[in-house]
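Run log, item B.
One chain of 617 residues. Sequence copied directly from the ordering sheet:
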Amino acid sequence: MQRNYFSQQAEEIANLGSWEIDLVSDAVHWSDQFFRICGYEPHDVEPSIRLSLDMVHPDDREVTEYLFRQALQFGNDYKIENRIVRPDGSIRYIYSQATVDKDISGKPLRLRGLFFDITDRKEAEEARRQQEERYHTILNSVMEGFQILDHEFRYVYLNPSAIRQSRYPEDKLIGHSMTELYPGIEQTELFRTMKDCLEKQCMRYLENEFTYPDGSKGWFELRIQPSSDGLLILSVDITERKRAEEHKRKADARYRALIENSSEGITIMDKAFKVIYRSPANAKITGWTEEDLAGKQSMEDVHADDREHLRLAVKHAVEQSTKPVPFQFRVRHKQGHYIWLEGIMTNMLSNPGVEAIVLNFRDITGRKNAEEKINEMNNELEQKVIERTAQFEAVNKELEAFSYSVSHDLRAPLRAIDGYASMIEEDYEKVLDEEGRRLLDNIQQNAKKMSTLIDDLLAFSRLGKKVIQKKQLDMNELLEGVLIDLSKSQAHHAVISSDELLPAFGDYSLIHQVLINLVSNAVKYSSKKEKPQVHISSRKEDSHVVYTVRDNGVGFDMKYAHKLFGVFQRLHTMDEFEGTGVGLAIVQRIVTRHGGQVKADSTPDKGSVFSFSLPIQ
């Protein structure tokens, strides 16, 4: 069981240890290199079966002990890779093989084994495994497609991105050729490029529009290079980029078409105010071509009176980035006359997509001429208004004189008639017979009616001169005042009701007059009903509030509705209902002056509905 010097040197060089177990004497022998592999110096410990098994890593011990027992009981040789734990706690990977020597009967006599330290190999294998795992992780996570094809253009490997780009499941790709999956690909530029790379062993780069079997298309950026397996292809899906480029190309074409065909002039200048571009409309507006303008000074053709204004516009544009600066100025046309230009100047030097000063302008000469003509007409009209106003003032003075005459000159004889009639009634009552007293009563009643007519006429005429003082009105409160005034001046048995009325905006006294006229009319014309009823309500319509006075009175025929709001117009006789025919005319005049409307609706013997609208504010 002794080892000679040369065998020890060989074990050290090969990092190989040996061991023996005599099953008859239970003697255990380890070579010096075995000790060193296990982390001991020779003869540091006493070799034993127990120590040999205790050194095995806990996770590998069960299998190792099983194989060892099989060798002892049945004489089975074995080979195993396992780990041992050295005294310092370090772990080594071991390849061990054992041979069983037996007697004539087959009984195991001795176990002999070799003990290889394969830690370096295992660590290298683990490093390679981790490296391959990293490569696979990277390839599986990148957005670019990566694929390997063999020399027959069969798919050997595709990462997930390449699988998505192919539009086939992985099991339909691996082992199948491109020509099988994409019929007709042999006639494409892509396939010819791939063959060329394979034959000439060169790398190629291209952008390719790929047509799928279903007819759909996609754009890919491809880098194709040969390898020992065949071809490596790196593919980037650039479909969206190509669509964006196409969209931009079309948009640029549309914008250029808009600019080239625009009736407005467009001029683009750099930061030094050097012209970069002029649209075709420039020449159409000014008559000057690009050749004509070469060498001209920028302000040369601008009207002398407008140059300072244009300089200020330029100054403001420079100071106010991206804010459009409006301008108007006159410029000399090629034919010699001046035309008016109007437009905006925008400093877009800070815009990365433009980096220029942009002028948009149009010819407004026609508009300017029209404005000048309108100004002349306005001046003439203003003079006419002054003249007409003077005429109206004269007429108003005459009307005021007439009103004064009506108020004083007509009232004097009326008062005399009424006074003499009263004197006759008192002094000659016993002398007059019944017919005389009737005639005298008629004289007095008609004198009172004439006085009332004069009062109503004066009230109507004064409406045109009264200044309207608008404010927010509580229509419920106003109606309450109207009903109190009505009960004092007019005895009636009508039932008057109302909803909660919306507020209005108007002159308190004038709207009070409107309501009292409408409500008193409703009471008067429903007075002959057994149960006269009047109802006041309101509703909102757009920017107005509509107020409605409804009654169940005698009503009227709508074909005469156009007469309702005229002065002294009546649809019923004095014998039927008293009145002068001025009340509704006053209503209409007041409401119209407030910016509203008056409407009426009726059916004979079924009542009437009068409504008027007032602005909300």
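Observations after the first pass:
- The mean pLDDT is 83.
- The CA atoms of residues 543 and 616 lie 6 Å apart.
Flagged for discussion on Thursday.
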